[in-house]
Design brief:
alpha+beta; 3-hydroxy-3-methylglutaryl-coenzyme A Reductase, Chain A, domain 2; Alpha-Beta Plaits; 4 domains; four-stranded antiparallel beta sheet; 17 helices; about 50% helix; globular; binds 3-hydroxy-3-methylglutaryl-coenzyme A; binds NADPH dihydro-nicotinamide-adenine-dinucleotide phosphate; HMG_CoA_Rdtase; HMG_CoA_Rdtase_CS; NAD
Length: about 425
């Protein structure tokens, strides 16, 4: 085997330590790297190794706790795993400003997931559609038998829907949607198993051929909603409100702006999803597909003034998260994060995450419509810049403070400050 080749036969059969040594050799890294990578922090090496393939170590991301949140009348601490400065502060800031008006009120459309079965080579697709619908009772029985545990917890098959799509190469496709209540699980594995169990029968009933059998990440039967009111007093008056409303409208009519606006929302959403061991990609894919559902990519939030002139914000987005399954149970930090939030159900977790997304959006819009994002964000980012410039220990705080004082949060300036500090 050539050391410069990425073809490393049997790599997956090595132990984690052996894999790391192999990577150090192939990538020509300094052997000191093994000390750093060998320290897996608060995720035991054997757990990391059982979670993914070809593991060589772990990567720690800070968890911050957002304070001030009141969700459905309950004070709630929010664990957020993120590498980005000012994200946690922004949630604290937004939540503080709506505490006096009651915090966040949330709701959920349900915990239904959709699995899709793709059927092709059917000459009479509309006929096939009805053939499938006629077998609803049998489909229910197969789905429920596939996951008796889910059934025990009150979940299982709820409905079947069939759509006919026209592919330009493949021709007519008959797409069956299995609608399944996955309760406290995100449900991907649960519904995928059901789709695979039902597919051969769909082929048999219709005479067609099935291809894909997989959940849809456009989880539009699992929408989490949150709303909150910020009084004019709390936000600093009408001009702040109007600036925020204009910022919202900009996002809602312009996809270039909406992408950034929604990225800001996902700063909060993904941080809680990650901290609780849930699937960030599933939530992100669902969020963006949902934002584009009207045919134009739009804002996930809506902002209005109420009859008293106060600012009201709302969010509604797919939130397929669970309390069991994925890494929610296997990652010890995820379990602690769930304990911090004290959530009792996947539904409550999803609703709380929606509230965090709304809070995040509030702070970003307020900063953008007033002082600009850089003032608050860069002040908090200054510590990162100090570390990038080589500051260590107490130097980090000193250099960061000086950067903020100068109003120039730049690495070259941090290096100058550090040199001066060190004499
Ligand atoms: C940064 C702040 C909060 C400063 O805000 P401020 O008003 O200058 O700070 P303050 O010192 O007056 O504090 C107000 C409250 O903010 C919180 N707060 C204040 N500082 C901290 C801190 N260090 N750690 C934790 N919490 C903090 C805290 O709750 C505090 O109240 P207190 O507890 O003191 O009574 C504000 O400017 C802000 O919310 N900015 C928005 C930041 C943001 O959105 N960051 C996301 C990254 S930028 C991005 O990726 C998304 C974006 C912006 O592009 C999205 C978009 O375009 O829509
Ligand atoms: N496109 C995507 O988004 C995809 C995502 N994934 C991954 O799938 C994982 C999530 O799948 P998921 O099905 O949630 O996980 P699991 O299969 O790990 O857990 C779900 C199972 O747990 C059991 N269970 C126990 N208690 C409950 C309860 N109270 N409520 C509901 N179910 C309960 C159920 O039955 P039983 O014990 O019989 O299993 C259920 O099927 C994530 O890791 C995700 O990354 C996988 C494929 C595709």
């Amino acid at each position: 085997m050539s050391t410069s080749s990425s073809r490393i036969s049997g790599f997956h059969n090595l132990t984690m330590t052996e894999r790391l040594e192999k990577v150090i050799e192939v990538a020509g890294l300094n052997p000191d790297v093994s000390d750093h990578m060998g320290n897996t922090g608060n995720l035991a090496a054997e757990v990391a190794d059982s979670m993914i393939e070809n593991a060589i170590g772990t990567m720690n991301i800070p968890i911050g706790v957002a304070t001030n949140m009141i969700v459905d009348k309950q004070d709630t601490l929010i664990p957020m795993a993120t590498e980005e400065s000012s994200v946690v502060a922004a949630v604290c800031n937004a939540a503080r400003q709506c505490r006096d008006s009651g915090g966040f009120i949330t709701s959920m459309s349900g915990s239904l997931m959709i699995a899709q079965v793709q059927l092709v080579d059917v000459p009479n697709p509309e006929f096939a559609r009805l053939q499938i619908l006629e077998h609803k009772a049998e489909i229910k029985q197969i789905c429920d038998e596939t996951d008796p545990v889910l059934l025990k917890y009150g979940g299982g098959f709820r409905d079947v829907e069939v759509r006919v799509l026209e592919g330009s190469h493949t021709g007519a496709m008959v797409i069956t949607h299995l609608i399944v209540d996955t309760r406290d699980a995100m449900g991907a594995n649960a519904v995928n198993s059901m789709a695979e169990a039902v597919a051969p029968l769909i082929a048999k009933w219709t005479g067609g051929r099935t291809y894909l059998r997989i959940l849809s990440n456009l989880a539009d039967r699992r929408l989490a909603r949150a709303r909150a009111t910020w009084t004019l007093d709390a936000i600093g008056g009408e001009s702040v409100r109007d600036g925020m409303l204009a910022a919202y409208e900009f996002a809602d009519i312009d996809p270039y702006r909406a992408a950034t606006h929604n990225k800001g929302i996902m700063n909060g959403v993904s941080a809680v999803v990650l901290a609780t061991g849930n699937d960030t990609r599933a939530v992100e894919a669902g969020a963006h597909a949902y934002a584009a559902q009207t045919g134009r990519y739009r804002s996930l939030t809506h902002w209005e003034a109420d009859q008293d002139g106060n600012l009201t914000g709302m969010i509604e987005m797919p939130m397929p998260v669970g309390l069991i399954g994925g890494a929610t149970k296997s990652h010890p930090t995820a379990r602690i994060a769930l304990d911090i939030m004290a959530v009792k159900s996947a539904d409550q977790l999803a609703r709380t995450i929606a509230a965090v997304g709304l809070a995040q959006n509030f702070s970003a819009l307020k900063a953008l419509a007033t002082t600009g994002i850089q003032k608050g964000h860069m002040a908090l980012h200054a510590k990162n810049i100090a570390v990038m410039a080589g500051a260590i220990g107490a130097e980090v705080e000193t250099v960061a403070k000086d950067l903020v004082k100068l109003g120039k949060v730049r690495v070259d300036i941090a290096e100058d400050l550090l040199n001066k500090l060190r004499g």
